[in-house]
Amino acid sequence: MTVEAFQKMTADLAWLPRGVMYSEMYLFSVTCQQQGVTAIAESGVANGMSTRLLRRVWDDVTSFEWNTNGLAPDLAKSIVMGDGRALVPEWVSARPRQRLGVFVDGPKGPPARPLREWCLEQPQVRVFAQHDYEMGSEGEDLHGNDPAFRRDVSSVLDKDIEPRQMTKRLDKRGIGIWINRQAFA
Questions:
Q1: For the CA atoms of 8, 10, 13, 15, what is the dihedral angle to 10 degrees?
Q2: For the residues 45-65, what does the mean pLDDT come to?
Q3: 3-class SS string, 107-145
Q4: pLDDT digits (tens, 9 = 90+) for 12-25
Q5: CATH number at residue 163
Q6: Could you tell me the residue range of the domain that residue 81 belongs to?
Q7: C-alpha to C-alpha distance for 53 and 13, rounded to whole angstroms
Q8: What is the C-alpha to C-alpha distance for residues 170 and 79, in angstroms, rounded to an integer?
Q9: Does 48 reside within a domain?
Q10: Using H for helix, E for strand and C for coil, what is the string for 75-88?
Q11: Does a structural domain hold residue 98?
Q12: Does residue 27 lie in a domain region?
């Protein structure tokens, strides 16, 4: 998928404050496509920006959230209620022969580490992404704050987001992506 194709697919989706950036979801989606992913699990929906973007790109998306208050009713009814730390492993285990991508926007920080470690031990999980992740802190393969990526992709896809809304760019947080190398052993 090209940057231009992604831009066309998502052009009518207005960015929601504190939501995932268009470029971050592009990086996750392209990485998943390169790894042959066929289904996506999302843990943590917040305002629903990532969910809306994922569903524009992927046919098979399962989103988990413990609180759907404040979400648009059409989006809230399609969310699986519960804690992603428990539900993502169940979802992954039920799909032993698929190539999976996991996008985590909650839990954040150290509480997400056990879920990431578990997912990357499962051969069917090809790509794991953690949003609001500090660049270079735990050996991610790709990061949305990589200078070349920001120059070539973020500058195009995120150009209409107000600069004051992009504080994560200033403090090195963004999407961290791990490719499961064990899946190919």
A1: -110
A2: 94
A3: CCCHHHHHHHHHHCCCCCEEEEEEEEEECCCCCCCEECC
A4: 999 888 789 999 99
A5: 3.40.50
A6: 3-9+20-184
A7: 8
A8: 32
A9: yes
A10: HHCCCEECCHHHHH
A11: yes
A12: yes
Percent of the chain exceeding pLDDT 70 equals 94
Record the tokens describing residue 105, joined without a space.
């926007």
Residue 14, in any domain of the structure: no
Q: Which residues contact 96 (CB under 8 A, 6 or more apart)?
A: 124
Q: Which two tokens stand for residue 154?
A: 């973020």
Alpha-carbon dihedral sign for residues 142, 30, 100, 161: positive
> What's 151's DSSP letter?
I
Tell me which residue has tokens 């992604």. 6
Instruction: Read off the pLDDT of residues 102-150 as tens digits, 9 standing for 90 and up.
Output: 999 988 888 889 999 999 999 999 999 999 888 887 888 999 989 899 8
Please state whether the predicted TM-score (pTM) of the whole model is above 0.90: yes
- Could you give the number of structural domains in the chain? 1
Model pLDDT, residue 165? 67
17 token code pair: 């404050």
